[in-house]
Specification:
Elements lengths: L4 H24 L27 E5 L4 E6 L2 E7 L5 E10 L5 E8 L5 E11 L8 E9 L3 E9 L5 H8 L21 E5 L5 E5 L2 E6 L3 E5 L5 E7 L5 E7 L4 E7 L1 E6 L6 E7 L2 E8 L2 E7 L7 E7 L2 E5 L3 E6 L5 E4 H5 L10 E5 L2 E11 L2 E8 L5 E3 L7 E6 L5 E7 L5 E7 L6 E5 L1 E5 L2
Antiparallel strand pairs: 1-2, 1-8, 2-3, 3-4, 4-5, 5-6, 6-7, 7-8, 9-10, 9-32, 10-11, 12-13, 13-14, 14-15, 16-17, 17-18, 18-19, 20-21, 21-22, 22-23, 24-25, 25-26, 26-27, 28-29, 29-30, 30-31
């Protein structure tokens, strides 16, 4: 049966009415809001480790140096040609969140600031196939920056083992290693208690001259120069040959002669134009001496190297060169505020490092010896005030310094001390010692 058109029309109208009703109702009913998302509370920050690397040995090249980082931080800095630098460990901090730490310290003798940055990263010294676990940057306010690598080396820290075995704090103190590779001088010259010039090989000493001063011994210890005072105004440089036991007047009207490091030249002082000047000559041709510089000086201090002589006046240290114009440094800067400048002071350059000087000068009412680095301007006292130390002389190995002391009764003795201030030892009575072999 086919539906009639009228019935179809009614059905369509009903459907349209229902659709309109429900559409209006849905449009008027507000939509339910979406449920709010719960906020996740922030995670607590990851704990940051406060542990820092210890028992490290750091090394670097150009120049060669090494650094010990012990249980409390940076302990000791060592450089080739210089005494070790003892450090006072300070605060240690982690640098941000990186695998890097800053070790703060003080240079014990000078109180200069030292910072050591240690980062955990692969490192190579470009000198060997050794691979290191840490990269190092040392910053010393006087010495400057030193770059290198480091590795953990617990076997080189015996105090770490002692810490685990013994709770006695006195036994846990870090002590520098003793100097054992030094070589005692074979030949020395000095003045005895009565002013006689003596030459000693080992313990045996023999008389060279009844009077003399300003001694200088050749490197092989077989020839000696000294000044003889014939009168108040007449001085003569004398050459003594140990093989023949013969003395020869070498240069008249001159004083304070020094052998060059290679024993080929002699530097000395001689009056010219009313002032003392530095002259040089060969010991074989003393009559061909030439004036080295027009700079007037007061005291000659020997050779810094084979081309440079050291001399001073009342305010400057002069570097008088055989092949270049002279230069100078301010003595006040070298001496600092604690030492007084005088013509009787002694300055000696290390035989293994021309940058390092041993100097004796008055500090108040006593004389002390201190070490001075020309480049870094680092000044370190070496002897104690109660010794009244003067006239320092380096051993040929550069590890020992010999000097004269005077007690309250004005008796003189010759002492030795190592360049790090250890090993003080009385050698013999006498004064003004100089070193040969």
């Amino acid at each position: 049966m086919v539906p009639s058109p009228i019935r179809c029309l009614r059905t369509s109208s009903l459907l349209l009415s229902l659709a309109a009703f429900f559409g209006t109702t849905l449009a008027q009913t507000p939509a339910k809001p979406a449920p709010a998302q719960k906020k996740t509370p922030p995670s607590p920050p990851a704990p940051q480790s406060k542990h820092y690397p210890i028992l490290l040995i750091a090394t670097g090249t150009e120049p060669f140096w090494s650094l010990r980082i012990g249980m409390k931080g940076a302990e000791r800095l060592e450089r080739v040609g210089y005494p070790p630098v003892p450090l006072e460990p300070g605060e240690i901090e982690q640098e941000g969140t990186a695998e890097a730490w800053l070790y703060h310290a003080k240079d014990s003798p000078t109180q200069a600031d030292v910072t050591v940055r240690v980062s955990r990263e692969a490192c190579s010294d470009n000198m060997s196939d050794t691979k290191y676990s840490f990269r190092i940057l040392v910053t010393h306010t006087q010495i400057g920056e030193l770059k290198g690598c480091a590795k953990i080396a617990p076997d080189q820290f015996p105090e770490f083992k002692q810490k685990n075995l013994d709770d006695d704090p006195e036994k846990k103190k870090v002590t520098p290693p003793a100097i054992t590779n030094f070589k005692p001088p074979v030949a020395v010259a000095y003045l005895d208690a009565t002013g006689k010039v003596m030459l000693a090989r080992g313990e045996a000493a023999k008389l060279v001259a009844p009077k003399g001063s300003q001694l200088s011994l050749s490197r092989d210890g077989k020839r000696m120069l000294y000044t003889r005072e014939d009168s108040a105004s007449e001085l003569t440089i004398v050459l003594y040959d140990a093989a023949t036991a013969k003395s020869t007047d070498l240069i008249r009207g001159a004083q304070a002669a020094f052998w060059s490091p290679d024993d080929l030249q002699i530097a000395f002082l001689k009056l010219s134009d009313g002032a003392l000047h530095v002259w040089t000559t060969s010991s074989n041709t003393p009559d061909k001496a030439v004036q080295l510089s027009n700079t007037p000086v007061v005291t000659l201090h020997g050779w810094q190297d084979v081309h440079t002589v050291l001399a001073t006046d009342s305010s400057k240290l002069y570097f008088i060169k055989t092949e270049a114009p002279p230069s100078s440094a301010d003595l006040r800067e070298i001496y600092g505020s604690n030492f007084q400048i005088a013509a009787t002071d002694t300055l000696r350059a290390s035989p293994i490092n021309s940058d390092l000087l041993a100097i004796s000068a008055m500090a108040g009412t006593t004389s002390n010896v201190f070490l001075y680095e020309l480049k870094s301007k680092r000044r370190v006292p070496l002897t104690l005030p109660n010794l009244y130390a003067a006239s320092p002389e380096w051993s040929r190995d550069g590890l020992q310094i010999f000097f004269t002391t005077r007690d309250p009764a004005k008796n003189s003795s010759i002492y030795r001390i190592f360049w790090d201030g250890s090993g003080l030892k009385r050698i013999r009575p006498g004064s003004d010692v100089v070193i040969g072999q």
